[in-house]
Amino acid sequence: MTGTVLAAVASTAPLQAASATPAVGTRPPPVDCRVTPCVALSFDDGPSGYTPAVLGALERQHAVATFFLIGPHALHLRADVLREGRDGDAIGDHTVTHPHLTLVPPARVRYELETAARQIASVTGHRPTIFRPPFGAWNAKVRAAAAAAGLAVVTWNVDPRDWQHHDTRLIERRVLARVRPGGIVVLHDRYVTTPPAVPYLLHALTARGYALVTVPQLFATSGGMRPGVVYRHGPTPENGRVEHGAVS
Q1: Considering 73, 94, 188, 244, which one is annotated as catalytic?
Q2: Are the beta carbons of 204 and 57 closer than 8 angstroms?
Q3: Where are the alpha helices (DSSP H) in the chain?
Q4: In the chain, helix, strand, coil percent, each to 5?
Q5: Alpha-carbon span 197 to 200, nearest angstrom
Q6: At 246, is the secondary structure helix, strand, or coil?
Q7: Which residue of 65, 107, 217, 222 lies most exposed, with the fewest beta carbons within 10 A?
């Protein structure tokens, strides 16, 4: 990866203006994440047969999360996508075929982002405004394509590697050991061992005083999110200052 983490949201103009259409999951946050510790749980690669279990856990706790969808999966499991939208979860783009975008030509990058965005919008009625690159891999080429598609780039700063270690208790321990205010946690709703960790994580994070928000809500009171900018963590209340995980 390239770029420098800034102490404030990038001051340079975005490469392309954001869409005027509100994105799913961007309703006003319940708290100001510049003041209250917040954490955003996110789920990649869905929807899948395990997504309803994740949604059920979120609904029981009146919590929200962010789902980065594979375009064809969204077309195949429309009911789950619509349920995410009704629940107030944020929905983002995670490409069509999950390639390593830094290793493919620019035209392929554009195809992956634009096609998935159209597929998701055909289900939700809203074009996504956030995007997670597969494997968290990005470079200038990927950022430029995201900017042209009106997508902010979202990575993470907490990764329990649930794709590698299919152990529910280990997932829980790793998230709770590594999470900090402003954290963006990456999980996957495609593995059987991840959904059982969600109820415990929701209880434990709430008990620690965290507000559970979507990724767009995490940045809603600190300037929002801009197309083509990379975000790996949100604002952090620290000695009255606000630090952002935006990369210019």
Answers
A1: 188
A2: no
A3: 51-60, 71-76, 78-87, 106-124, 140-148, 168-178, 197-207, 215-219
A4: 35, 15, 50
A5: 6
A6: strand
A7: 107
Paired sense of beta strands 152-154 and 230-231, if any: parallel
Q: 44 an active-site residue? A: yes
pTM of the model: 0.87
Token code pair at residue 81: 């996508």
Q: How far is CA 156 from CA 17, 39, 188, 243, in A?
A: 23, 11, 13, 15
With helix as H, strand as E and coil as C, how does 167-206 read?
CHHHHHHHHHHHCCCCEEEEEECCCCCCCCHHHHHHHHHH
Residues facing 212 on adjacent strands: 39
Quick one: tokens of 178? 């590594």
Decide if 63 contacts 2 (C-beta within 8 A).
no
What is the pLDDT tens value at each position of the chain, 248 positions in all?
A: 333 222 222 322 233 333 333 344 445 456 899 999 999 999 999 999 999 999 999 999 999 999 999 999 999 999 999 999 999 999 999 999 999 999 999 999 999 999 999 999 999 999 999 999 999 999 999 999 999 999 999 999 999 999 999 999 999 999 999 999 999 999 999 999 999 999 999 999 999 999 999 999 999 999 999 999 999 999 988 733 444 566 65
**Cα–Cα distances in Å, from 58 out to 87, 164, 187, 223?**
9, 24, 14, 27
d(CA 187, CA 225): 21
Contact predicate 182/235, CB 8 Å: yes
